[in-house]
Specification:
Blueprint: E1 9-12, H1 20-25, E2 29-33, E3 41-43, E4 46-48, H2 51-62, E5 66-70, H3 73-82, E6 86-92, E7 101-117, H4 128-131, E8 135-139, H5 143-150, E9 163-167, H6 170-178, E10 185-187, H7 189-199, E11 206-223, H8 228-243, H9 246-251
Parallel strand pairs: 2-5, 2-6, 8-9
Antiparallel strand pairs: 1-5, 3-4, 6-11, 7-10, 7-11
């Protein structure tokens, strides 16, 4: 798998025909995301994940120079909500978000489970009512936070038995689980497997506690302030990558919805 080595900012113009004159006149897109296995993650100090080469192929085909940024999810989301010429992934498509973005194309569907630690005295979970008694770690501004709140979960307080504990990113969230600071985290099966592999951990120490009745449809989307000319170009070349098998090659193993 091709890897990217600049930690904070990946400035990319990979196609050989790209010249300084072209870069000076063309609009440069910002592609934003978070450190979130299995889509994007750090491996031995280098950025990896299936979306990076797919996005690179898409932007090359569209003839659009871009820079790639890994931020906390709340910052990436804010940029995509307010700035022009921003692409964001992997963004859950919901009715509440429908009018706020230009949806370029679906990446994967993912089923979400509550995962805990083997050997912990975590209560039995057979319902959402029982899950509300757990301390659940979740990422700020993430769709899972919105879903849990909409289904009767509230943030942790000094007097509550259970509730939602917010983290900046998935790495911090998983560390809280391993250290016993939370009882469970809502993640997909493939995300948990990728986290274990990249962190060199035995996945046998984690266990599924409860399947949440939610599936996330995750997309590549453009900011609403992006012009329709660019949006239509990106959608056209996204469809071409679906047709030639590039999309299936990149994402088929991630679909567990």
């Amino acid at each position: 798998m091709k890897k990217w080595t600049q930690r904070l900012l990946l400035s990319v113009c990979w196609w050989s025909a790209c010249s300084m004159a072209q870069a000076a006149t063309a609009t440069t897109f910002r592609v934003v995301t978070e450190d979130a296995p299995p889509f994007t993650y750090w491996h031995d100090g280098e950025l990896a994940g299936p979306v990076l080469p797919f996005v690179d192929k898409l932007m090359q085909a569209a003839g659009l120079p871009y820079t790639h940024h890994v931020y906390p999810w709340a910052r990436s989301l804010a940029l995509a909500q307010h700035a022009p010429n921003v692409l964001i992934y992997a963004l859950a498509r919901t009715p509440e978000r429908e009018a706020s973005f230009h949806w370029i194309g679906e990446l994967v569907d993912m089923r979400i489970y509550l995962y805990g630690m083997v050997g912990r005295k975590t209560p039995q979970v057979d319902s959402l009512a029982q899950a509300r008694q757990l301390r659940i770690g979740v990422i700020n501004k993430d769709i899972r936070l919105d879903w849990l709140k909409a289904n009767g979960f509230s943030e942790l307080s000094p007097t509550s038995v259970g509730g939602l504990d917010l983290s900046e990113n998935s790495e911090v969230n998983m560390l809280k689980l391993r250290r016993g600071m939370v009882d469970a985290v809502p993640v997909s099966r493939i995300a948990m497997q990728t986290y274990c592999r990249q962190s060199k951990l035995d996945c046998g120490q984690f266990r599924q506690l409860y399947p949440l009745p939610m599936t996330m449809s995750l997309y590549l989307a453009a900011s609403k302030k992006t012009s329709y000319e660019y949006v239509n170009t990106l959608r056209y070349h996204y469809r071409k990558l679906v047709q030639d098998g590039s999309h299936h090659q990149a994402f088929s193993r991630l679909n567990d919805g």
